[in-house]
Amino acid sequence: MCGGRVPAARGVLVLGPFDDIMGDNPESYSLLDGRLEIDVAVAGPAAVTTVKRETGRAGLLDATRVRVADTAPPHAQQDFAMRRIRRIFEPAADYRNLPLTDVLREVSEEKWLAAFLEMVVGMYGRDVAPDIVPDAAALGVAAWCWRNDTAVEAHHLDTDLLMARTNIAVTRVAQQHVCPVDGIDWDGIEATLMDPQWSLPEGTAIHSLFGSGWTEVAETVTAELRRWRHIDQNLLGPQSTLILMTIGGSTGYTDSWWGQGNWHAMCRHAIDNAVHAGLSLPAPYDLRGTKSLLDDLDEPDLLADNVLDWIIDLPEAGIDGPRGLRFNALDRPAKSCWDPYWLEDHTP
After folding, report:
1. Collapsing DSSP states into helix, strand and coil, what is residue 10?
2. Does 1 have pLDDT greater than 60?
3. What is the dihedral of CA 130, 139, 148, 243, to 10 degrees?
4. Cα 215–chain centre separation
């Protein structure tokens, strides 16, 4: 018998849109507009990677964006907003064993939380469904307990590249402490971020990057983490907190951050535009090729400065050239449509 590698068996994974033919689930909406066919090996790590990338490209690994159908009656928008509020805070009412109205009253009395709800949930994330998506929640922690409402921006690092590397490092820490069942381990996140040994992959201690400013950074980041821990444990409970952090990690603020489900698709979009414009890939990928660069971008914090800087800004593109991740007009996943056809139009 001749030796040799046996080709892996292949198949097609087909995902289809939800179609409520019988009208049994009128309040549901489909995450897909059409069929998604993924050509994959039957088993193995390569199959997992392929499915992750293709479903991520379709927006299935991020929080769902949803809009009310244009044909819906005017009061449907208000009805949708009330359903969203209930979905966010009913887990908190169950956690506290209190009526929903009591929980909402307590939430409104927490001024900083009310401000977060108005700005992040009501404005920046107004089209984000109240899902629980662990990776998006980790981005929410990185965005609102590290970069915003802290002294991190006041002590901005020497380069945006270093800021990007610390963002990734914080997101990795948060990912390790977010559980869809048990919630967010705030103490674990704090312990890691405040550990003097917490470092970038190449070994630089992150506290050293901020110099004397680290004292203020550490104090303000710790304060934010503890404030959310208090709200989590004493007001909202783990599920409502996860929903808020998921929305917080799904706004335009984190659109180009590593850690979201469509990261690979965004990188591919930026690279395709650069190649189409005649730009050279950064070394060593000018020799290794596009596929190798795309594969390695799954772990961007392990890449050399010239490579990470290239995908962020495409420094040789010029003013009118294509854009990297920072300024590229990247499309968000398509919005699902909520069509409350059962609501009567009371418009006179």
Report:
1. strand
2. no
3. 20
4. 29
